[in-house]
Structures are given as C-alpha cells and as structure tokens.
Amino acid sequence: MKIVTVVGARPQFIKAAAMSRVLRPRHEEILVHTGQHYDPQMSDVFFEELHIPRPDYDLGISGGTHAQMTARMLTAVEEVLRKEAPDALLVYGDTNSTLAAALAAVKLHIPVLHVEAGNRLGSLVNPEEVNRVLTDHIAAMLFACVPSAMESLRLENLAGHAWLAGDPMLDAFHYYRGLGGDRPPETLPGIDGAPVRTPERFYYLTCHREENTRDDAPLTEVLLAMESLPCPTLYPVHPRNRAAAERLRRSLGLANVRLLSPLGYLESVALVAGAERIVTDSGGVQREAFFAGVPCVTVFDYAVWPETMVGHCNVLARPDRLDILNKLSVTPAWPVQASPFGDGHACETIVGLLDSDFRRG
Predict the structure, then answer these.
(1) Co-location of 241 and 150 in the same domain
(2) Which residues form the domain of 261?
(3) One domain, residues 34 and 130
(4) Do 131 and 193 fall into the same domain?
(5) Is 345 a catalytic residue?
(6) How far apart are CA 53 and CA 298, in angstroms?
(7) Residue 344: phi, psi to the nearest 5?
(8) Do residues 161 and 361 touch, judged by C-beta distance below 8 A?
(9) What is the chain's pLDDT, residue by residue, as a tens digit (361 residues)?
(10) Active-site entry in 66, 208, 312, 345
C-alpha cells in the first residue's frame, strides 16, 4: 500500500519517527514536510537525531495567519497527492498541516488516516480544536490514543471507524530513552550559544502557547514562579518567544531561570525524566512527564490529556505565580494500573489495523 504521510511540527516528527520504523518495512511511505516548524532547531535536528527518513517533499510553508498558512498548504499538498496518487493519507494530531492535508485528500477521494484522533477540549476558541474536530469528521480511520478520546468519538457518532490504538508518543519515549535519552547531558546550549551546565537538581519549563506568550503578563507570572523555586529552572525557548524571554530576563532580574536554545528530542526527554517537577503548556511534554513519573503542572485552561491528571500527577494552573506555586506543592498519587496510553506498541497496532481493516474497505 502506498501512503503519503504529512508532518509539519515537532510532535509530528516524533510520532512519524516511531511510525515509519514499523510502517516502511511493510508499505511504501512518501513523507511530506509542510515546513510549519521552519527553524532548523525545531525541525532539522529532529530528522537527524531520530533518524527520520528525509522528506520526499519539503514544501517550505510557514508564517502568516492560520487561514493563509492552511490555504497555502492545502494547495501544495493537493499537488503532491495528484502526483503520487496514494492509497491513503496519514496525518497526526491537530496542526494546520494536519487539517490542510486532510482537506486536500478527502476532496480527491483519498482515505484519511488520523492518528491521535478524538482529543477534545470542548472549545472552538482554541485553533487546534478546530483542526482536530474537522479532521476527525472527514477521516476514514481514526486511531485514538486514550479511552477519553474514544468516548469523544462515540459521542460524535464516529466510533464505527475508530480504534483505541495507544499513543505513538509512548512508543517513541521508550525507544529513544534507550538510545541516549535516559540521562541529561552535562551541558546544554544557552540561548546566546554559550554552554549552560546542567544542575544536579532542576525544574523543567516549556512555555510556548500563544495564550501564554502573546503579551508579557502571563509569561512574566510563569517566570516569576520558576524564579522563586529552590532549584534552578531550565527553560528551552521557542524561537518566536526569544525576544520576549530575553527582555523579561533582564527586566525581572532572573538568576534562577536558565534560558536555553531549543533542544532536540533526546535532550528534552532526558530533562523530563531528570527534573524535580515540570511546568509546561505542551500537550506532548505533559504526556512525557506522566510516562516518566514526574509531577507536572500544566499552564492551560483545559485538560488536554485527562488521563494524566489522575492522582494530581498533572494539575492545571492559571498563568499566575501563586497558583503555579500552589499547584507545584501538591503531592501526586501515582496510579498502579496499566498505562491508559497503551503498551508502547501503538505503531504496530495501527499498522496491523491498516493491514486488516483498511484492506477490507
């Protein structure tokens, strides 16, 4: 079977790395990179260290409004699909790349396979929610990571072509921890290029969502919370937040928050596993924290992954210094039952379903 896979952002590169290892020995895969994450530190490094096959098509599309970006991707992906004439299109998650590729495929009557289907926040104010809902409703096969996602698909009358497959992020987490992501490196790249020594004990912060970075107020609260903690905080800064983070470091006199350049996946996984606690607004990092058994505070209004929130293992907080500090003081009770994210073999499950259910039509 010939499958076109479309990726464009960091979390999709990680899932594609796990999936391609299983998919390619049994099927022909054509990899398309839209360019949504265009910075080499957010894109090239992942292809190199995760040994992802180089894209067959690199569309170089980034920037602009959501509509402008999605429209350009829709046109470019359509050209690829017309040329390649695949049996199916494979997409991950909820980015503009996901929606654009799915729209292009369904209009050409190419079945859409959606990995990480069914996640719901319950608010269309969030642009990723729009992308995931629309993609789910035009997809031919839906692969959910967790039981709550399957329930959402059932409520939307989509369960007839949905499967609880597990999370490819868990597959990747286990695999790459064994390839060097099990311990933090001695030094990390500072935001100015100078090496930063990794402290023996540290907190790990990722903060990039537009809701938390569109102006200085929420990011200031997050940084002040981290500054007051007893151990240093390591904060890899997204390229679009760099100017604000450097300006706030100076104006707030931050000494306990160490600003880093964007990290590769192996470095990030090692810091997740080695941190005292984690503060994030990333859907991927909060899952990795749960996989690693590290308490997490998520600075966001919605529970993206409710399965991580059992026993206060992951707690929501407002972008408010006192609220973040209060949530960091909560002692979690880790579940003893099997992981709700599967057994670490989601990719094998998905490819097996393609070999059986897809071929049956």
Answers:
(1) no
(2) 187-328
(3) yes
(4) no
(5) no
(6) 32
(7) 85, 10
(8) no
(9) 999 999 998 889 999 999 999 999 999 999 999 998 665 555 567 677 777 888 999 999 988 899 999 999 999 999 999 999 999 999 999 999 999 999 999 999 999 999 999 999 999 988 899 999 999 999 999 999 999 999 999 999 999 999 999 999 999 999 988 776 568 889 999 998 899 999 999 999 999 988 899 899 999 999 999 999 999 999 999 888 999 999 999 999 999 999 999 998 899 999 999 999 999 999 999 999 999 999 999 999 999 899 999 999 999 999 999 999 999 999 999 988 889 999 999 999 999 999 988 766 5
(10) 208
